Amino acid sequence: MGLLNQSARQYYEGPDGVQNSGDESYGEYQFTSLENIINQFIIAYVGEDKLIPKIKKTDVSFHAKRALQELSFDTFKSCKSLELEVPNTLSLPLPQDYVNYVKVSWVDDSGVLRMLYPMSKTSNPKAFQQNADGSLKFENNTYQATASDSFEEYGITKTGKISSKDGDGLIRSDNPLEQYEKEIRVVFNTGSTVNVRYGPSLFAANSNERVKHGMFIQLRESHDITVGMSVIGPGIPNGTTIHSVDTGFSSLEFPYNVTLSHPGYEQLLLDGSGANTYAASITTTETLGGITTTIAGFENEEIIFVDLNKKSNTKTNYKSAKAIEKTVDNHDYDTDIYDLNEGKRYGLDPQYAQTNGSYYIDCMAGIINFSSNISGKTVIIEYISDTLGTDKEMKVHKFAEEAMYKCIAYAILSTRANIQEYVVQRFKKERFASTRTAKLRLSNLKLEELTQILRGKSKQIKH
User: Fold this and answer.
1) Is the pTM of this model over 0.70?
2) Residue 407 lies in a domain
3) Does 205 map to a domain?
4) Where do runs of H (alpha helix) occur along 54-97?
């Protein structure tokens, strides 16, 4: 029985009956699915009078996925690519199924890839905020809970501590404050120009947006607050962010109105609950109907607006450094003049003697950072995955099908009891040999192409 399960028309036109519409699966015949590998392994290797008398299918599936991962790293053609435009932040997240990078480059106006080189001599270390004397900063943010006689901790580094009312009310955080991209602290103070109020909307009858969200803060000054920043303060639930910043009420005492949002409250909106239902839970009163209350009990406490993206001076200096490109007026890549020191220019590192740009990957944060001259350019990130990201990816090239069987068999036999060692060693050798054969097949060497490349090797290289 043949392996083709569709006609030529179905192959070329796809499900919608139109050629080259994007829903076709061209070239699929060169692969076989992981499910077929598992089923065929059980048929060939498992059963009475066979190598493996009995085994659960889940065990075979586990070893098959592990074999697929390992072969993906150095045998399969599992290199993927992603095209993105670098924003002015000079940072991009790593791809969702990223394991390791192969190459990073940017595209010039002619569509030619310009190689970017990894900057190994920089990083993004964890940076903590410090006091003037060099000591680390710790938060002491505490407020008196309205429904109890205790003090509760709040702040960026809060851990949920509670203090007795009989004490001084101070709860000292265990963790120092890290440096963030932007951090603004506004003190509750009814007598100052930075008075803050929040609660059910004062303008419920005039602003649908406030009726919708129910939570807002009024400020006398803008403080350079932007949409998307996290909001932390007394009674404000975790995960609250700035939804919008409105200056439409400039005639009032508090012209800057910051509307807040929260995942729990958004769910209430989806469920059809009213706006003030959630807002009442973060105020000191049960008064509803669109009346704003001043939080007198939180006098001299803080509301914190923070961009939780962490930063360090090392990262900031790397991004702010301007790459010097070769021009008529500026012909040197470095900033020091060595032209007059002929024969004395020592220490030039060739990996940095280029103007394409550079990057480094912050593996802990999952971010790739670029040098300043890459801002606004289109970059291509070529990377390795393990081919287990989606069900559609879990397939094996037919050149490596035998290697999969040998890898699964060796993994199973080497982890089972009462298997003779010579059997394990035999399959270890067979696994190695089949993997090497798969590499040679997948290397796709063609005699004509190799001959053309070797013709260029006769050229003399001038030093």
Assistant:
1) no
2) yes
3) yes
4) 57-74
